[in-house]
Amino acid sequence: MKAIILLGAPGAGKGTLAEGVRTATEYIHISTGDMLRTAVKAGTPTGLEAKSYMEAGELVPDEVILRIVGERLAQGNPDDKYMFDGFPRTLEQARALDATLEKLSAAVNQVFLLEVPTPVIVSRLSGRRICKGCGAVYHVTNIPPKVADVCDQCGGALYQRPDDSEETVLNRLEVYERQTASLIDFYDRKGVLVRVNAGTTPQEATAEMLSKLA
Length: 214
Ligand code: AMP
Hints:
By secondary structure, the protein is α/β, with parallel strands linked by helices. It has two domains: 2-116 and 167-212, P-loop containing nucleotide triphosphate hydrolases (Rossmann fold, 3-Layer(aba) Sandwich), CATH 3.40.50; 118-164, no CATH class. 49% of the residues lie in helices and 17% in strands. It has nine helices and eight strands. The chain has helices at 14-24, 32-42, 45-56, 62-74, 91-103, 118-127, 166-180, 182-190, 202-212; strands at residues 2-7, 28-31, 81-85, 108-115, 128-131, 137-139, 158-159, 193-197. β5 (128-131) and β6 (137-139) form a beta hairpin. α1 (14-24) packs across α9 (202-212) and α2 (32-42) crosses α3 (45-56). The relative contact order is 0.20. Adenosine monophosphate (AMP) binds at residues 10, 32-33, 36, 53-54, 57-60, 65, 86-89, 93, 163, 172.
């Protein structure tokens, strides 16, 4: 089993890059944010538990996240290659992931830190649009769909994530600095951190990441 992680602030382009890497490689994309949004939409107990945290831009409790990731990994195969997006987000999650992988005789192979200047992040998040049908990610000016508000891939309607509103975005960036940024040091010390300039276009950032993928 192989495991890589996409680390970076909200709006750094984790989902977009993950999609580019997924189509070019055998990596399986695991986005805890997507899993939670699916659970909220379906009204499952996990979704009900997560909803208020997500709306406020706060982190969902570690135990909830570790449960859904654990359940997902339990369905996998020994030679799967996983690309985590938006997970881990706390030191506790990072340590739990290490312990889970160790039991499977695996470890975190590489952590790609997506570096983007803050003003770029804010503009990306406020212009971001998501497909209701397939979850594809667009941006009103940077990655516009061919037909306004319609997904190129599945024809679904595009919407703005409720947590992409200006007020929640600022809180999410603060939460990133307070709870997630310490993971940069954690993985740097392990010697697995790889920096990617993600302030460029999705194509350039994806190409840079693919060139650095071991
Ligand atoms: P994302 O799509 O990765 O930006 O995640 C959207 C929201 O889901 C976050 O603002 C959190 O509320 C929640 N979330 C996603 N992944 C995690 C995680 N690993 N730990 C805690 N909360 C998470």
